[in-house]
Write the structure tokens for this entry.
Amino acid sequence: MSKSRHTEAQMIGALKQVEAGRKVEDVAREVGVSKHTLYAWKAKYGGMDVSQAQEAKQLREAEEAGGGPESGQRSAAVGDPKKRLELVALKAAVEQVRAEYAFSQRRACGRMTMAVSSYRYQNRRSDEPLRTRLVELAREKPRFGYRRLHVLLGRSGEQVNHKRVHRVYREAGLMIRRKKRKHCVRVGKPLVARTSANQEWALDFLHDAVECGRAIRVLSVVDAYTRECLALEVDTSFASRRVTRVLDAIVAQRGQPLAIRCDNGPELTSRHFLAWCVERKIELVPIQPGKPTQNAHIESFHGRLREECLAVSWFQNLFDARRKIAAWRIEYNEERPHSSLGYKTPKEFAAAEAAGFYRAEREARDSNAVPCPSRSPIPAQTGQGAAESCRILT
């Protein structure tokens, strides 16, 4: 069993602080252990003082060595020499040594390698006025931390060291509990090279504002292979049912995709949207939070939309925004050359791919057909009621 780097005096001192009302997390942070270690110390030393803990330790050491319960007083040093104790813990250790072995102050301080002046020092500075002032400010601004309270103290003409403010702030129990935001756990899937249309759609939202300052949102849907913009829906807000209605309209025109890549917004993680995908057997590929590059196709498209349309347009109202954004979508699909498509427009690329697909299908069908026989004359059949016959395969 490894030797603890904390003495019984330190452990019991930490437990006394917890019993006095301090938070377990704060005491554990000061001592340098986890809160679970404090609970283990409590199970071992709870309700004991330093002398009782020392007696129990001596009994254990004597029993392990095979001797009696009495041990010598050869070494009066308390603590691990590898760990330098703090001033408060050193004072407690000196007091313990003096109480157990009747040492003088100078001898006990020498054993603990502590200056006698440090042991005799009594703090004459009172933190009560600062504590009262911090409590008043904290009641006025309940969500301010010690840094902002330190700024407020400076504005009022009180020059106080920020470390002292932090110490008194903690001692007064003014620490703010901040709720950690819960993030859904996602396993990122890398972008896969698609080989045909409708294998994967990329979906995301973009924000802008109209002349009066009212915010608008743009729902973008892009085919990951042909780079066609399938929808640019503009409105002030989008519920999940509105999103599925837009997708249903696209599915009615060109069929449904095999997968949809999107982020973790509330519209795209609702029960309705998840049920819509399950009902149509569409794989949902959510990206990891804070990693928009996992949906790079839609992010690249949003860059073009922002530079070429939103940044150069002035929207008078929502209807004007819908008209101008719809016009830019037509231009993007039918006129704008796309560098990743060999400088073809998405519509030209999709048409060429569709023609190549149907041509390949026709060639495969023709290769499976019965070969056409030669056009040489077929001899007439003999027999009653016989006639010439010829079969031509087309």
User: Anything to note?
Assistant: The longest strand covers residues 200-209.
